[in-house]
Design goal:
Blueprint: H1 16-26, H2 28-35, H3 37-42, E1 66-72, H4 78-88, E2 91-97, H5 100-110, E3 118-119, H6 126-131, E4 166-178, H7 189-197, E5 204-206, H8 210-220, H9 230-244, E6 248-251, E7 267-271, H10 272-281, E8 288-292, E9 297-306, H11 313-323, H12 326-336, H13 345-351, H14 364-367, E10 370-372, H15 379-393
Parallel strand pairs: 1-2, 1-3, 5-6, 5-7, 9-10
Antiparallel strand pairs: 3-9, 4-7, 4-8, 4-9
Helix pairs in contact: 2-15, 8-9, 8-15, 9-15
Length: 395
Amino acid sequence: MTEHNPVRILADHGTANRIVSDMSRRGFFSLVGVVGGTALLAACTPGGGPGGKTTPRASGGKLEGSLSMYSWGDYDAPEVLSAFTKELGPKLTVDSFGSNEELIAKLVAAKGTGGYDIIVPTGAFIPQMVQNNLLMKLNKDLIPNLSHMDPAFLGRSWDKGNDYSICKAWGTTGFVYDTTKISRELKTWADFLDCAQKEASGKTSVLDDPAEITGMYYWSHGIDWNTTDTADIDKCEDFIVTKLAPHIAAFDSYPGSGAIPQSAHALIQVWNGDARQGILASDKPDKWQWVLGAPTTELWMDNWAISSTAPHPEAAHAFINFVLTPENQIKNVDYIGYHTGAKDIEATAKSEGLEMLDLVFFTQAQLATMKDGEVNSAQERTVDIYNKAKAAAGA
């Protein structure tokens, strides 16, 4: 994956680790194809973790004295983390990873010898992690604050019963355009792709991510972006490589840190939180128009989970329950700039005066257009199309 210079994302508190992590998280399709994450999982024996079948190992007993978390960099409000230790006791240590593959590799390497407690995988990886006994089944009796979560962000396709995971944060994909350079109104992915080949030719930036690049074609043509149909994929490749790529000026997963505030491009595919950061940082924010990808786009979600080898399961359950309180949820929204899936948190954010909330919160109608991604047999083709597109664009 592409390296990125240290820059701050959305929230004023964000750091370089958060940005590099975001790219790897939403880029899991490319990483699976290139690094071989699915092969790594396949090498594990299903249900072959410590003790065989995973069952809850926390019963509500005394909390252990320490707790370890392995997560995406700078992904929690420091005041929430320190409050957990101050109020409940366990000393918390946090390490960060840069991709789901790195997370999985560390868990596999542990081989039941202990290690991390809290982990934060992306949704599409959870079924394989469960199958290979990498996650502990949650004892939801110990997480009563689950009641503060919005049902819309529970029961996702990868874990319909939330038996192994609970939403930590989620986001989506759209684009921004410079209204001083593009005079017509753009509303859909079809508009984006058409404009990129016309007035924004040579001034268009797309996300440096295989799934996002191919996704634009599928979303604009009413095709399931998780398709494995060869005919669909062939048509996608022809369009992306021969028609779109020659007009692309940059493959940039974090335009909010540079391209948007610097007005480097006129048309930019971008994740919602990064779009917000870039617009807020721009000296002329009003010239930028944000558009949620239509008629469909993606929904990525990171999740609280507990490692099947967690040495501190009581403290792990207590921590998840702690961060799900309304007061801690709004602190994290303010810090990371993404929706945490908490119930009524939009009203709270409005009352506290957070800016540009239309890029953080979405209507039910908008949510209905967002589709989950999945890890499937089309990954190799997806990465191949991405590589060919970059070559055709001269990147």
